[in-house]
C-alpha cells in the first residue's frame, strides 16, 4: 500500500525570548522527520534548548530552489518536514517562498504553525494605526536606492514598516526625513522580546538624538515604523506627492510647489504646505 504523503510545516520560532515558542511548534518540531533550517547551527541551539534531536537540512537563499525538490520527495515518501528560519516566521524576509510555492504546485500540503514575527510584534506595541499597514521588508543598503524605495510607497498604504540594521539606521533616518518630511512621526522598535527591548517615538531627528546619546543604542535588531501621511496630505494624489518630492531635491519649496501645481492642475497652497512638511522648513 502506498504511504500517505507527509506535510511541510512552516514553523515560527522566537525572535529573542525562547519562551515565546508555542506548544504546537514544539510538538511539530518533535514529530518532524526533518527540520529544514536557514542555518543548521543556529537552529541546533534552539533544538538543544528544547531537547529535540531531529535531522536537519540546510535551506537558504542560495540553495532553496534545488533543495525544494528533495524536500518534496521526502514529503511524497511520507516524511514530515518542518521549515524554520533563524528567528520569527519563515518566508518573512527569510527563505521559504520558493519551497512553499513548489510544495503547493506538487500537491504537498503546507501547514502553518504561527508564532512570533518582528513586524507584527513591533506594530502591536507602536501605537500607530494598524487598520492598514505596508511592510517593505529590508531597506536597501545605499542611500539613493533607499530614498527611491521609500518614495515609491504610495501615500494611502497606512503605517509603513521596514526592517533595518543597526549599522545603517542613522543614515536611514536621514533618508526617511528627506522623503516623508522632518516632522513625520516614527517609531523605532529595538530588541523586541529581549532584555534591552525599547520603543523610541519621535521625528527622525529626535530618534537620531536618542541613538547618539549612547553607542549601545545603535546596536541590536530593529524595526522602523513610519506613521501614515497626515490627513491633509492624503487629499493630494500619490502622483502629485511623488512629483513634489522629486522637485524638492533640486528646487526651493515655492518653486517646487508651483511646478507641481501646474503639472497636476492643483492649487499651489496645499502643495506649498506639504512641501514645508517634507523639508521641515517653516513658513
Ligand atoms: N522572519 C523574521 C520575522 O518573522 O520577523 C525576520 C527575519 S529578518 C532576516 C531579520 C530582521 O527582522 C532584523 O534585521 C530586524 O529588522 C527584524 N527583527 C528580528 N528580530 C527582531 C527583534 N527581536 N527586535 C527587533 N527587530 C527584529
TrEMBL record:
<dbReference type="InterPro" id="IPR000878">
    <property type="entry name" value="4pyrrol_Mease"/>
</dbReference>
<dbReference type="Pfam" id="PF23016">
    <property type="entry name" value="RsmI_C"/>
</dbReference>
<dbReference type="InterPro" id="IPR053910">
    <property type="entry name" value="RsmI_HTH"/>
</dbReference>
<feature type="domain" description="Tetrapyrrole methylase">
    <location>
        <begin position="8"/>
        <end position="207"/>
    </location>
</feature>
<feature type="domain" description="RsmI HTH">
    <location>
        <begin position="235"/>
        <end position="277"/>
    </location>
</feature>
<dbReference type="Pfam" id="PF00590">
    <property type="entry name" value="TP_methylase"/>
</dbReference>
<dbReference type="InterPro" id="IPR008189">
    <property type="entry name" value="rRNA_ssu_MeTfrase_I"/>
</dbReference>
<dbReference type="InterPro" id="IPR035996">
    <property type="entry name" value="4pyrrol_Methylase_sf"/>
</dbReference>
<dbReference type="InterPro" id="IPR014777">
    <property type="entry name" value="4pyrrole_Mease_sub1"/>
</dbReference>
<protein>
    <recommendedName>
        <fullName>Ribosomal RNA small subunit methyltransferase I</fullName>
        <ecNumber>2.1.1.198</ecNumber>
    </recommendedName>
</protein>
<keyword id="KW-0808">Transferase</keyword>
<keyword id="KW-0489">Methyltransferase</keyword>
<keyword id="KW-0963">Cytoplasm</keyword>
<comment type="function">
    <text>Catalyzes the 2'-O-methylation of the ribose of cytidine 1402 (C1402) in 16S rRNA.</text>
</comment>
<keyword id="KW-0949">S-adenosyl-L-methionine</keyword>
<keyword id="KW-0698">rRNA processing</keyword>
<dbReference type="InterPro" id="IPR018063">
    <property type="entry name" value="SAM_MeTrfase_RsmI_CS"/>
</dbReference>
<dbReference type="InterPro" id="IPR014776">
    <property type="entry name" value="4pyrrole_Mease_sub2"/>
</dbReference>
<comment type="similarity">
    <text>Belongs to the methyltransferase superfamily. RsmI family.</text>
</comment>
Amino acid at each position: 500500500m502506498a504511504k500517505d504523503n507527509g506535510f511541510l510545516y512552516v514553523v515560527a520560532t522566537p525572535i529573542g525570548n525562547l519562551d515565546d515558542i508555542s506548544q504546537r511548534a514544539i510538538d511539530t518540531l518533535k514529530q518532524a522527520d526533518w527540520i529544514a533550517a536557514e542555518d543548521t547551527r543556529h537552529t541546533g541551539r534552539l533544538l538543544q534548548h528544547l531537547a529535540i534531536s531531529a535531522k536537519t537540512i540546510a535551506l537558504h537563499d542560495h540553495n532553496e530552489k534545488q533543495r525544494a525538490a528533495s524536500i518534496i520527495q521526502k514529503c511524497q515518501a511520507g516524511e514530515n518536514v518542518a521549515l524554520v528560519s533563524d528567528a520569527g516566521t519563515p518566508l518573512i524576509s527569510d527563505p521559504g517562498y520558493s519551497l512553499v510555492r513548489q510544495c503547493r504546485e506538487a500537491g504537498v500540503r503546507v501547514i502553518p504553525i504561527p508564532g512570533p514575527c518582528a513586524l507584527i510584534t513591533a506594530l502591536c506595541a507602536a501605537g500607530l494605526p494598524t487598520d492598514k499597514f505596508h511592510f517593505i521588508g529590508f531597506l536597501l543598503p545605499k542611500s539613493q536606492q533607499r530614498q527611491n524605495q521609500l518614495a515609491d510607497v504610495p501615500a494611502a498604504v497606512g503605517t509603513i514598516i521596514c526592517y533595518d540594521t543597526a549599522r545603517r539606521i542613522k543614515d536611514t533616518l536621514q533618508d526617511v526625513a528627506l522623503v516623508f518630511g522632518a516632522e513625520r512621526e516614527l517609531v523605532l522598535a529595538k530588541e523586541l522580546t529581549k532584555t534591552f527591548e525599547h520603543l523610541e517615538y519621535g521625528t527622525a531627528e529626535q530618534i537620531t538624538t536618542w541613538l547618539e546619546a549612547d553607542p549601545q543604542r545603535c546596536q541590536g535588531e530593529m524595526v522602523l515604523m513610519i506613521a501614515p501621511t497626515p490627513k491633509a496630505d492624503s487629499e493630494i494624489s500619490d502622483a502629485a506627492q511623488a512629483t513634489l518630492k522629486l522637485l524638492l531635491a533640486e528646487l526651493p519649496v515655492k518653486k517646487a510647489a508651483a511646478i507641481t501645481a501646474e503639472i497636476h492642475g492643483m492649487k499651489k497652497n496645499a502643495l506649498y504646505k506639504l512641501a514645508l512638511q517634507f523639508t521641515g522648513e517653516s513658513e
